[in-house]
């Protein structure tokens, strides 16, 4: 019961503005429901998976904070009726062609927004790995002899990214995205400066942690910005374009940092990031607000001020939870889910291991190409281009992947493909990753083997990693519904911790086992993990149905749909639309049958 109380305090999803009876179910939920429902779980049965196979992930990345008033709306004609203190005629909302609605922004301006937030996110992620190129010069200047100690700079940065995401993601839902971008990126830029001027390694380690906390605002919130301005038809494409920046950040860090450290000195790895992040801050500062609740609250406040009439309102004026309560839930719920949901035990372990081995590359590549092959720091950075090519192939393959997902049979209860459809892509990726890892291990040395072969091994390795991160996240988002943001946040913390700590053991491991056998051990570990996605692909539904939380979510989702159908029918009757009322009754009957079949089917499931 304590777990249920904690999990029920807050729910997350992207709010949508209903414009027809067909969309009213996105806002109609009973406040007495044992689990608060949101637009994400209510709309999940209606959003077309055919147009966007990543819809569940996109909803999870764009949470909102629900209000008490929002839970009791009744659609009548073209306005909402709530209570006497909030007259429907004075509601501030977006019109169909309202230029203030982010989804009505001009196409060219949407492109600028996506480019700006992608670039800013790229600079933040890039800084996590460009540091590795500065380590030799920094260690020499500060007299640091232990490479694992110097590698703590990567550990502190990734830990800061994880911690900051838990705090800054919910704050954007209160104050809007633009203020969080401007404030956090400005502080991020300022905290790069002490690293460039540092006189000791300790200074760098501490400052990088807090700098990463601020920079995490881009990683946590920029996907939400993309979802704010796009519709279902083009959202998957927009996300693919946006992901070019953050997905390529880790591999471009050593490339840029390597040439900077080689020709300008190790401190310039920081100065360049300061310049790039400054450009990103300037670009984001020039953008309009894209978060609909923040825009509507500002418009309502302006109407009250301009007219002197306090009756003007919007649905987001009343905040249900205080900032402290919101932060408490966002800091605790991810860990509650992580340690109580067996599904997350396996997926968090799998993704964290893959992520940790990826970051071990930033130890292995300098060892292979600089120490053994005698390459310069700059040219060693070029060796990461193989992984970058694989990452780009994974991104541009989205149309093909979409068709593969849609080829799966749809669930009769929802009319959508099951979450396990996304796992089919992870199964392919789970094979590509060890192929690339073992290929690299046995072609990187001896150095008589041509250098192109280990670089080419990065293509399947990079593609596999990217596909795992994207589609395993989509699976978790589809599985956990209104709690998907918390499930993904917990996953992010675990993988960042492993990704930051595993490289600390890298130098000793490669020295003791040689690059071939250390890499082989990692490849065999990845092979041993291959059954995880295949098991979930084959028996995922049965496993999901064994989770009490997921079963409860599904039952409440069905009940929410029934309430929405009744509300549509009642609204139609009030407006004299007999045909729509009759259709609503038929829909309710069909929904009741679906619910009964669903519950009966769950009783029959056996593992």
TrEMBL record:
Amino acid composition bias (Low complexity), ranges on this chain: 30-43
Highest taxon in the source lineage: Eukaryota
Regions of compositional bias (Basic and acidic residues) in chain numbering: 555-564, 574-607
Bilayer-spanning residue ranges: 107-129, 149-168, 180-202, 271-296, 343-368, 374-396, 417-439, 451-470, 482-505, 517-537
Mode of membrane association: Multi-pass membrane protein
Main location: membrane
Domain (Major facilitator superfamily (MFS) profile) ranges: 113-541
GO biological process: export across plasma membrane; xenobiotic transport
PROSITE patterns named in the record: MFS, SUGAR_TRANSPORT_1
Statement: the UniProt record of this protein carries the keyword Transmembrane helix: yes
Annotated keywords: Membrane, Transmembrane, Transmembrane helix
Extent of Polar residues compositional bias: 10-20
Region (Disordered) location: 1-50, 555-607
A cellular component term, taken from the record's GO annotations: plasma membrane
One Gene Ontology molecular-function label: transmembrane transporter activity
Compartment(s) where it occurs, according to its Swiss-Prot or TrEMBL record: Membrane
Name the UniProt record assigns to this protein: Putative benomyl resistance protein-1
């Amino acid at each position: 019961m304590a777990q249920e109380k904690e999990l029920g305090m807050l729910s997350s999803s992207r709010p949508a503005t209903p414009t027809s009876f067909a969309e009213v179910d996105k806002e109609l939920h009973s406040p007495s429901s044992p689990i608060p429902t949101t637009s994400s779980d209510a709309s999940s049965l209606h959003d077309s998976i055919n147009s966007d196979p990543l819809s569940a992930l996109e909803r999870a990345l764009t949470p909102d904070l629900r209000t008490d008033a929002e839970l009791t709306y009744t659609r009548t004609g073209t306005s909402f009726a709530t209570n006497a203190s909030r007259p429907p005629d004075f509601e501030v909302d977006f019109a169909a062609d309202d230029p203030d609605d982010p989804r009505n922004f001009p196409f060219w301006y949407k492109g600028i927004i996506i480019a700006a937030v992608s670039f800013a996110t790229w600079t933040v992620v890039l800084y996590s790995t460009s540091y590795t190129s500065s380590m030799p010069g920094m260690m020499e200047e500060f007299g640091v002899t232990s490479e694992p100690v110097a590698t703590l700079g990567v550990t502190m940065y990734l830990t800061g990214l994880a911690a900051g995401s838990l705090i800054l993601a919910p704050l954007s839902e209160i104050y809007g995205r633009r203020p969080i971008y401007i404030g956090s990126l400005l502080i991020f830029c300022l905290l790069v400066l002490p690293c460039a001027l540092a006189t000791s390694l300790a200074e760098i380690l501490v400052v990088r942690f807090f700098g990463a906390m601020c920079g995490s605002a881009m990683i946590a919130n920029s996907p939400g910005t993309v979802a704010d301005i796009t519709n279902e038809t083009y959202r998957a494409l927009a996300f693919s374009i946006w992901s070019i920046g953050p997905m390529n950040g880790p591999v471009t860090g050593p490339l840029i940092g390597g040439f900077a450290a080689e020709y300008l000195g190790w401190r310039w790895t920081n100065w360049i990031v300061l310049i790039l992040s400054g450009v990103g801050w300037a670009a984001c500062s020039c953008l309009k607000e894209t978060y609909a609740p923040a825009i509507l609250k500002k418009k309502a406040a302006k109407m009250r001020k301009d007219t002197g009439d306090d009756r003007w309102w919007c649905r987001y004026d009343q905040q249900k939870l205080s900032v402290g309560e919101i932060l408490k839930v966002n800091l605790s719920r991810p860990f509650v889910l992580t340690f109580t949901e067996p599904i997350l035990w396996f997926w968090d372990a799998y993704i964290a291991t893959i992520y940790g081995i990826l970051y071990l590359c930033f130890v292995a590549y300098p060892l292979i190409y600089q120490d053994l092959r005698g390459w310069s720091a700059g040219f060693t950075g070029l060796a990461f281009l193989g992984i970058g090519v694989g990452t780009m192939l994974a991104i541009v393959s989205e149309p093909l992947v979409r068709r593969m997902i849609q080829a799966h049979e749809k669930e009769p209860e929802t009319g959508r493909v099951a979450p396990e459809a996304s796992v089919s892509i992870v199964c392919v990726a789970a094979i590509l990753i060890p192929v690339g890892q073992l290929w690299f291990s046995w072609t990187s040395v001896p150095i008589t083997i041509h250098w192109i072969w280990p670089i080419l091994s990065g293509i399947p390795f990079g593609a596999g990693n990217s596909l795992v991160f994207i589609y395993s996240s989509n699976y978790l988002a589809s599985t956990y519904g209104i709690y998907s943001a918390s499930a993904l946040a917990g996953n992010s913390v675990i993988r960042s911790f492993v990704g930051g700590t595993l490289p600390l053991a890298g130098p000793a491991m490669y020295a003791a086992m040689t690059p071939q056998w250390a890499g082989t051990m990692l490849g065999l570990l990845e092979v041993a993990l291959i059954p995880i996605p295949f098991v979930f692909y084959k028996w995922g539904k049965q496993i999901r149905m064994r989770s009490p939380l997921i079963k409860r979510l599904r039952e409440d989702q069905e009940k929410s749909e029934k309430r929405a159908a009744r509300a549509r029918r009642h609204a139609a009757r009030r407006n004299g639309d007999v045909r729509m009322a009759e259709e609503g009754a038929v829909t309710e009957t069909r929904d009741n049958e679906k619910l009964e079949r669903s519950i009966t089917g769950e009783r029959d499931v056996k593992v």
